[in-house]
């Protein structure tokens, strides 16, 4: 072990004592070869060092800079309590710098390069009604075209103030404004144009959209569709506990609101069971391929589906029509006439005599071929019938689940409406009746 240590130490000392030539000395002229992009970048940086990034890049002071400005929406949220609109966007700015132009033929047909944003002049377009004084764009390179056109697309998170109207809360609609403009330049110095007709490109919102942490879209056919109902059940349970804590312990009657909470909890449990039933019925076509019972087809798919306005088994009909055409196209006919396709008079020997043995042999081969073809066609027909039956049963079970889901939804809404009409008008009617009696008594006392 000690020997290995001393060998490594001696090797490192020997390497340290050697003098390696520098990168510049390895070339004949002592100069580093630069690519066309490197030469072009150095030329542009030299120009920027001479002109500086301060001041607008125009040849005449009276000339205005035309800046195209646009936003690409990624995510949006509204803090109603703090009255702040938070948006995640791509900012797009395009302008021209007359000093950063070149001939592509002199630099290997390079038409664009990228420079750091802190090296060039950038329009000071900011959000006027900002609620975040530290709003800053993330670092992004500036793309420079040979015509002098610069494009800068940084990612920014804007926090803007928004006036909130809570008259229709929680079903309110808010309209927030975002005001952008140059912070120090006037309109004569910087002319801002919109890159998009509405100012915001919503295609980025559809492609770069991020899921919200507060809610999620659940497929109606998903097996976890009962989870929102479980959360709602827990919410009603918490509200019921709060009501129990707030109510007097020696009260002789039960609050109507408590009855409503209990009734909703029962309805939610029933809805969870019915949702599980609908999901299981929907999965019957995928798992077992069992046919829908006759009574279910007559009652649900024929009667209730029409009443509820649901079209059933619309995807089964094309398969049935295609199968019917295939059944009559001549491929399944019997091959009994195949023996007449080759008359015996056509089979003759070299001397002109009829060869009976060859005719019998050919007839036997044709018979075996006919039987084989019939078996193949029967198997194809059976497989096609089985596939069509599976598809038909799949879409029928799916239609049954859709009809039951619509029926249970209508029943649920009706039960909730009836419960509201039965439970809550009673205390209001008694309150109105007692108020009218008090008014009549007071009026009678005043008359006396």
Molecular structure report:
This protein is of the alpha+beta class. The chain contains 9 helices and 10 strands. The protein has helices at 2-17, 36-51, 203-207, 227-246, 256-287, 294-308, 317-327, 356-423, 425-447, and strands at residues 65-79, 84-96, 112-115, 125-127, 142-145, 149-152, 155-161, 180-182, 190-194, 200-201. Strands 1, 2, 3, 5, 6, 7, 9 and 10 form an 8-stranded mixed β-sheet that branches. Strands 4-8 form a two-stranded antiparallel sheet. Strand 1 (65-79) and strand 2 form a beta hairpin. Helix 5 runs antiparallel to helix 8 and helix 6 (294-308) crosses helix 8. The termini are far apart. Mean pLDDT is 73; it is low at 314-351 and 438-448.
Largest sheet, in brief, is: 8 strands, mixed
Radius of gyration: 42 Å
Query: Which shape, going by the Cα principal axes?
Result: extended
CATH class of the largest domain: Mainly Beta
Report the count of strand segments: 10
What keyword list fits this structure?
about 450 residues, alpha+beta, Acetylcholine Binding Protein, Chain: A, 8-stranded mixed beta sheet, two-stranded antiparallel sheet, 10 strands, about 45% helix, extended, disordered C terminus
């Amino acid at each position: 072990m000690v020997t290995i240590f001393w060998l490594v130490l001696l090797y490192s000392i020997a390497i340290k004592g050697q003098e390696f030539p520098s990168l510049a000395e390895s070339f004949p002229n002592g100069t580093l070869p630069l690519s066309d992009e490197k030469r072009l970048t150095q030329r542009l940086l030299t120009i920027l060092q001479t002109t500086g990034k301060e001041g607008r890049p125009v040849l005449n002071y009276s000339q205005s800079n035309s800046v195209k400005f646009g936003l690409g929406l990624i995510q949006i949220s509204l803090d109603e309590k703090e009255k702040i609109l938070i948006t995640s966007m791509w900012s797009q700015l395009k302008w021209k710098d007359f000093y950063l132009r070149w001939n592509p033929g002199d630099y290997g047909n390079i038409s664009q390069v990228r420079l750091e944003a802190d090296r060039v002049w950038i329009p000071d377009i900011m959000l006027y009604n900002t609620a975040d004084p530290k709003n800053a764009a993330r670092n992004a390179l500036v793309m420079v075209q040979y015509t002098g056109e610069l494009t800068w697309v940084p990612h920014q998170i804007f926090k803007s103030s928004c006036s909130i109207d809570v008259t229709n809360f929680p079903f309110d609609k808010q309209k927030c404004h975002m005001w952008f403009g140059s912070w120090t330049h006037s309109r004569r110095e910087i002319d801002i144009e919109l890159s998009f007709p509405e100012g915001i490109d919503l295609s980025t919102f559809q492609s770069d959209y991020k899921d919200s942490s507060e809610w999620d879209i659940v497929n109606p056919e998903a097996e976890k569709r009962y989870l929102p109902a479980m959360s709602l059940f827990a919410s009603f349970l918490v509200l019921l506990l709060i009501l129990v804590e707030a109510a007097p312990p020696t009260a002789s009657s039960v609050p109507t609101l408590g009855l409503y909470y209990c009734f909703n909890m029962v309805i939610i449990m029933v809805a969870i069971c019915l949702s599980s039933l609908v999901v299981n019925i929907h999965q019957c076509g995928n798992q077992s391929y069992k046919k829908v019972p006759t009574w279910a087809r007559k009652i649900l798919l024929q009667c209730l589906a029409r009443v509820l306005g649901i079209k059933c088994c619309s995807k089964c009909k094309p398969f049935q029509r295609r199968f019917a055409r295939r059944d009559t196209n001549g491929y399944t006919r019997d091959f009994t006439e195949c023996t007449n396709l080759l008359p015996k008079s056509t089979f003759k020997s070299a001397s002109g005599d009829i060869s009976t043995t060859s005719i019998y042999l050919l007839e036997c081969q044709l018979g075996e071929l006919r039987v084989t073809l019939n078996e193949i066609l029967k198997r194809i027909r059976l497989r096609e019938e089985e596939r069509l039956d599976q598809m038909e049963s799949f879409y029928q079970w799916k239609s049954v689940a859709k009809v039951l889901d619509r029926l249970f939804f209508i029943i649920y809404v009706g039960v909730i409406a009836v419960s509201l009409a039965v439970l809550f008008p009673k205390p209001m009617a008694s309150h109105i009746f007692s108020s009218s009696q008090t008014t009549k008594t007071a009026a009678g006392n005043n008359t006396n």
